[in-house]
Structures are given as C-alpha cells and as structure tokens.
Amino acid sequence: KNEVEQSPQNLTAQEGEFITINCSYSVGISALHWLQQHPGGGIVSLFMLSSGKKKHGRLIATINIQEKHSSLHITASHPRDSAVYICAVNTGNQFYFGTGTSLTVIP
Amino acid sequence: DAGVIQSPRHEVTEMGQEVTLRCKPISGHNSLFWYRQTMMRGLELLIYFNNNVPIDDSGMPEDRFSAKMPNASFSTLKIQPSEPRDSAVYFCASRAGGETQYFGPGTRLLVL
Asked: Using one digit for the tens of pLDDT, what is the confidence trace for B27-44?
C-alpha cells in the first residue's frame, strides 16, 4: 500500500472547467506539498500546507488533517495548466510522493 | 536570482563509470534536497541537508551513492560505479527555513 494515493491518475478537461485533484495519505505528517511538473520536466512547488486552505491565483489547496486528505482545485482552467500534479507529504523525517495526476486542458 | 542551478543538464555515461552531479542552491537557503525521478518509481527523496549537515539519507539506494555539501552554496551527488538502473532525472531543490522548496531544472542521466 502506498503512503500517498492520488486521484484521478489522468484527467482531461475543457478550458474554463473547474478541476479537482485529490490526495489521501496514511501517515502522520508535518506538511503536505503540491508540486507541478510541466511537460518539459521542470518542477514547481505550488503549495505547502499543514492546515486549512491556501489560495494563489486560480489555484486553491485545502487539507483536512483529521481525514488525512487534501485537494487541489483549479478554477477557470487553461491549457497552460496542463501538467502533472504531484502530492507529497513530509512526516518530519521522510517524504512520500504520490504517483501524480496528469492533467490535460483542451482549448 | 538565478534559482537553483544544476550541472550538467544531461549526462550520458557507460556503466561502471563515476558520475558526479552538482547543485548550487539559492543564496540564503539553508536546506538542500536531492531527488530522483523515474517512470517506474516516480519522484523519490534521496537525501537532504540542513545547514550543510546531512539529516536523512534513508532514501539513498545503496553505497554506490554518496552526497556531500562542503559549504552553503554547493552540493554534489556522486554515483560510483554507475549502473543502467541509475538512469533517471535527478533534481536538486533548496528552501529557506520551513518554506516552500525551489527545484532546479534537473540532470538527465543515462547510463549505458
């Protein structure tokens, strides 16, 4: 069993749609990260969360510590949002990574 | 700021050879992370440093891998001897305090 599970694995959306990517984890964590990896391979850290909600532009990340669950939302999706989104958790002395959600936004 | 700098960007070598990957973190950042990404295993943390001291190297696959951080502005990841299964993209990331990590562009390693 993986410590971090993401869903869906693949997602195709029309431009403008509201998108949700889910992450569930089974370990105690000090923080959860959402990463974005573009087709060229570069990785960008989007959010680091330990509680509540964070918003940056059209991106919103939430976390429920009791339920061990986090969601990444993209409002008014755009083709440039097409990327792989990776959830990672930090237990304090180890990192665990989800396998990623591949998002394609069609114009 | 130039961001996290990694070199080389691409490396092709033959099995048995020594490979050295280099990373220059963002100035002022006190934590540095080495990751490996493969299709089979996804992204994995290999080792991370706080204030140049290795904190957790449990992700280092075996003794063939070693990492050093002689000062706050430079780190190396060495593989000796390299094997085909080491082929991957190796990322370096740095952060200041408990804030978000900034990733370098990665080094694509191919071991033939």
From this structure: 999 999 999 999 888 899
Closest CA of chain B from A32, distance in Å: 10
Chain B residue with CA closest to A96: the answer is: B44
Tell whether the torsion through CA atoms of A13, A19, A24 and A29 is positive or negative: positive
CB contact under 8 A, B43 and A33: no
pLDDT in tens, A4-43: 999 999 999 999 999 999 999 999 998 999 999 988 888 9
Q: How open is the CA angle A92-A97-A100, to the nearest 5 degrees?
A: 150
CB atoms within 10 A of CB B32: 28
Q: Which residue of A has its CA nearest to B56?
A: A93
